[in-house]
Amino acid sequence: MEYLHVAGLEHSYGSQRVLENVSFSIRAGERLCLLGPSGCGKTTTLQVLAGFVKPDRGQVTIKGEPLDGMPPEKRNIGIMFQNYALFPHMSVFDNVAFGLRMRGLEKKEITTRVGDALTLVRLPHTASKRPAQLSGGEQQRIAFARAIVIRPRLLLLDEPFSNLDARLRLEMRTELLDLLRELDVATVMVTHDQEEAMAIADRIAVMYKGRIEQIDIPNEVYSNPSSLFVARFVGETNVFDGRAMGHDKVMVDGLGEFSVRKNQSIANNSKVKLLVRPEHIELAEKADMNGQWNTVEGTVERLLFLGHRTEWVVRKGEARFLVWQSQPHSLMRKVGDTVTLRWRPSDCFLVASEHVNA
Amino acid sequence: MHKYALSRRGWLLLLIPPLIVLGLLYLLPVFNLIRISFVEYDPQVGIIPNYQLGNYVELLGDGFYFEVLWRTIRLSLLTTLFCALLGYPIAVYLIRSTGWRQTAMFIILLMPLVTSVTVMSYGWLILLGRNGVINLTLAGLGILDTPRQLMYNETAIVVGLVHVLVVFMVISIAASLQSIDQSWIRAARGLGASPATAFRTITFPLSLPGLRTGALLVFVLSMSAYATPTLLGGTRHKFLSYLVYQQAISLYNWPSGAAMAVVLLISTTVLLFISSLYAQIGAMRANLRTSKTGTISGSMNAGSET
Q1: Mean pLDDT across the stretch A207-222?
Q2: Interface test with A, best of B181, B297, B301 (most A CBs within 10 A)
Q3: How far is residue B266 from each of residues B215, B220, B226, B238, measured CA to CA in Å?
Q4: Fewer beta carbons within 10 angstroms: which end of chain A, N or C?
């Protein structure tokens, strides 16, 4: 059953088109993440949902009720802003109570509900403090409490972690996910960080140049990207130009023939790109010629020890392979050595070349 | 980094030139002014270096002087009020407009500052005079049979002062409006506040510091205004600054003029002190209120936390 439905959003700022036929829907309690680089239209989409931007075309409905032309204050949508937007002249209590006061609730109920919300984010002792007296992580939790205390129909999170330092970011990610699961509220989150998106979201919509490139569960977006852009934006990828030979073979310029996962949508002999994730490539001791693996012999050009993994750049001719290895034995090689790389056909895939796709 | 960092002593050395300038050009004259206000004056002899309170006693017994002092304070407060009422919407417009509209508004606002006060007051004379534009227009339309006296009254003084000083109010308020993050307004809207409510609960309270600064500037400047009240108020509606001028320059009675100036200085300072006290009490009461609600919710949460 569809809960939030967004159909055919179009929007331009002046001559610049920022949204092109953006459509998606989410179920009750589902978390959708709009993922993309800056300027891809994800924030504009969020602002359309919040009612701050009136789209040129398209419709937004919640439970079948259209939101067109409804001002933000009537929508009952909770919003957590990128900079949290806590009111600096009010105490934490008054910040969280703001939405409830606007709804004209009784004093007693406001006190109870604000207390509950602050307890939920584990900050009840901060009620009388000013936002400026709180740490970044605390401010984020108060902003969250303020957004959910009104019991919104929909929760919007705008880059929720971008203002936190790296360590706190990981901590708050788990915490926010726990809270969202507990509340079971339909959520649309915007981020440019693919890891955040995969951690929080039930489904991810990858956006590029005002359009949704792919919308699917995180695992599918990662292992089955529908376009070169998605493959490159979600995780690192080695990309090689080639020509399709049937549905499961590719001839890569200067490297030879490789087997790939079957892709029916690729036409025979069409220009394609072969994509291999760096963590799927292994260093083999000897060339494994039994045909189960794709293999390439190359020279180690760069070797970076990063603690939890080692990053290799292996060169063959003009082609360079980025390889991530977690095995300690990979340390035994050095720059200039000849190594054999191998990867499974099921771990690599073809996408049509961009200009054909576009 | 250390190479360029100044030591404490270096900073103090840098402070010396401005301190000397300030001391010579400000503190010394003010001290001298206060000193002169206590010496005796005789029209035949001039200044007699005999320190006493005679000048102040004379002022306190002078009803005319009090009337002028009261007018100066009253009209300055009115000027401040009208500058605030007029300046706030202009500041909002200035912040929201862009491009040539904003530039045009700035030019209109700054015009009185770059034009000499005398020229500007004569401009008002052309508008408000007995044969001025307004009188002629109203007479021509048949609304007035005879020209009205629009000049040389207290209204004219306030109109003139507001014209000159409103820019200080606008710039102060605009600066503080500029620092208001648009996401605060959006957050308020998202939480259920209409545009008017968002203005009342977020924009206005956050712009109060600018309003306060603007009010102080306008009040201080209009308390000491000379040319505008003199030209637009005429002989019957004098400002204190005019009396000081009269005593010191026309009558050569420096001690009496100095005493007046000191009273003007003191009354301005006292009014500023009262206004800042009032602001502090307001802030204290707001803090008390939030900490009270804070403890209520705090104690309620103590139970659910354990």
Answers
A1: 94
A2: B297
A3: 18, 12, 18, 19
A4: N
Question: In sequence order, which ranges of B115-253 are alpha helices (DSSP H)?
Answer: 117-128, 133-140, 154-178, 182-190, 195-198, 204-223, 227-233, 240-245
CA angle A52, A56, A59 (to 5 degrees): 75
* Contact check, Cβ <8 Å, B181/A90: no
Q: How far apart are CA A271 and CA A354, in angstroms?
A: 9
Give contacts of B205 with chain A, Cβ < 8 Å: 89
Q: At what angle do helices B63-96 and B154-178 cross, to 10 degrees?
A: 40
Query: Do B297 and A118 lie within an 8 Å CB cutoff?
Result: yes
Residue B214 near residue B86 (C-beta atoms within 8 A): no
Tell me how far apart the alpha carbons of residues B84 and B89 are, in angstroms, rounded to a whole number. 9
Report d(CA B112, CA B163) in Å as an integer.
Answer: 7
Residue at B40: amino acid letter? E
Amino acid at A258: F
> ipTM score of the complex?
0.84
- pLDDT tens for each residue of A233-258: 988 899 999 998 887 888 898 888 88
Q: What percent of chain B has pLDDT over 90?
A: 49
Query: What is the topology classification, in CATH, of domain B50-281?
Result: MetI-like fold (1.10.3720)
Instruction: For residue B228, count CB atoms less than 10 angstroms from its CB and return exposed for 0-12, middle for 13-18, buried for 19 or more.
Output: buried
* Mean pLDDT, all residues of chain A: 90
Residue B198 distance to chain A (closest CA, Å): 10
Distance of CA A42 to the CA centre of its chain: 11
Q: Which residue has the tokens 């209590």?
A: A93
**Chain A nearest C-alpha distance from B286 (Å):** 9
> Which of A92, A119, A128 is facing B295, going by the closest CB pair?
A128
Q: Choosing among A48, A53, A76, A91, which should be mutated to test the B contact, i.e. which has the most B CBs within 10 A?
A: A91
- Domain residue ranges of chain A, discontinuous segments joined by +: 2-228, 236-357
Give the residue among A39, A43, A36 at the shortest CA–CA distance from A192.
A36
Domain boundaries, chain B: 50-281
The pLDDT score that the predictor gives to residue A325 is: 85
pLDDT for residue A1: 66
Tell me what pLDDT residue A107 has: 95
pLDDT at A308: 83
Dist CA A77 CA A68 (whole Å) = 14
d(CA B27, CA A122): 56
pLDDT tens digits, residue range A73-93? 999 999 999 999 999 999 999
The CATH class, in words, for A236-357 is: mainly beta
DSSP B88-121: HHHHHHHHH--HHHHHHHHHHHHHHHHS-HHHHH
B297 touches A at CB < 8 Å: yes
Nearest chain B residue to A127, by CA: B294
CA distance B179 to chain A (A): 12
Let me know if domain A2-228 sits in CATH 3.40.50.300.
yes
Per-residue pLDDT for A228 more than 80?
A: yes
